[in-house]
Amino acid sequence: MKARLEALKNEALAQLQEVTGPESLNDLRVKYLGKKGALTEILRGMGTLSAEERPLIGQVGNEVRAAIENVIEAKQNAYQKEETEKRLQAEKVDVTLPGRSMPQGGIHPLNKVIQEIEEIFIGMGYSVAEGPEVETDYYNFEALNLPKDHPARDMQDTFYVTEELLMRTQTSPVQMRTMQSMNGKSPVKIICPGKVYRRDDDDATHSFQFNQIEGLVIGENIRMSDLKGTLQQFSQEMFGPHTQIRLRPSFFPFTEPSAEVDVTCVKCGGSGCRMCKQTGWLEILGCGMVHPKVLLAGGYDPEKYSGFAFGMGVERIAILKYGIDDIRHFYNSDMAFLKQFARI
Length: 344
Known about the structure:
344 residues; alpha+beta; BirA Bifunctional Protein, domain 2; 2 domains; 7-stranded mixed beta sheet; 39% helix; elongated
C-alpha cells in the first residue's frame, strides 16, 4: 500500500505540472483528493492492515495528501495573481489624464430676475406672499374696484374656467387675500410674485402667460413720496446706481392717484438712443396709492390707513436688464440662449 501511495503521489504531481488553467486544476483536485478520489480509495483499504502497519500507512497517506495539496494551493495562488494582474491592466486608470467635466445646469433668466427682485425687496423689509393661479372673480376683479360692468375689465382679456372662476390676470388678488388675513392690522409690506394669464397673441413683446411681481404697503401716514423713494431704490439696485425714475399720471381702478414709472434708458443712460426711441426713458411698471374702496374691501379704514401698490412684468425687467429683443426666447427652451445665463 505504501508503494501504491508513492506511485499515486508521483502521478498526481506529474499531472499537476501539466495543468493549463483553474478548471483543469480543480478536476485534478477532485480526481485525487475528492471523496471518491484515488487517495480515498487507497486509504479505504487500511482496514485490512495490521495494527502496527496502520499508523505508518496513515502517516504516508497524510504526507501524500499534503504534497498534492501544497502544489494545488501554489497553482491556485499563481492563477489568482495572474487574474488580478489582468484585471488591473484592463481597469488601469491614467491619473495624469485631465478630468471629465460634467455638464452643469443654470438658473433660468426669469428665475434669476425674480430672485434678484425678491432679494432687493426683502432687504427693504418686505415679505413674499403667494396665492392661487385659479382665482375667483371676486378677488381678481370685484374686491379690487372692478365690478362686473366696469369698462376696465376689457384691459385684461380673461381666461374663464366658469362664470366665477378664472385664471388670474394679475397677482393683485394675493394682496387682497393678505389684507383680509391681517384682520385690519398693520403694517402690511409684501411682494407677490407669480404667473398670470391673459388672452393675448404671442409676439416679440406679448405672451398669454407671463410672470408678474406686485408690491403692497399699508400703514398709517403712507405717502406718494414713500412710493417714489421705494421705486427709486429698487431701480438703482436693479439697473445701476445712476438710474433715475420719473412718474407719469395714469389710471388703474385699484389705485388713486396712479402712475406709470419710467427709468433712464439702460443702454444710453438717458442721452437718447434707438432702444428708448431717443427719449432717454423706458417704462418698467405701474403704481399708485391704494384706492379707498380697495382698503375697505381688505378690512382697513381709509380714514386711518393709507398705502401704495406697484406691479411689474418680470419679462419686461429681464428684457431691459439683459438686452433681449424677443420675449419668446424665455419659453422656447433654446439651449444656446439659456447657456448664456449659466455664467451670470
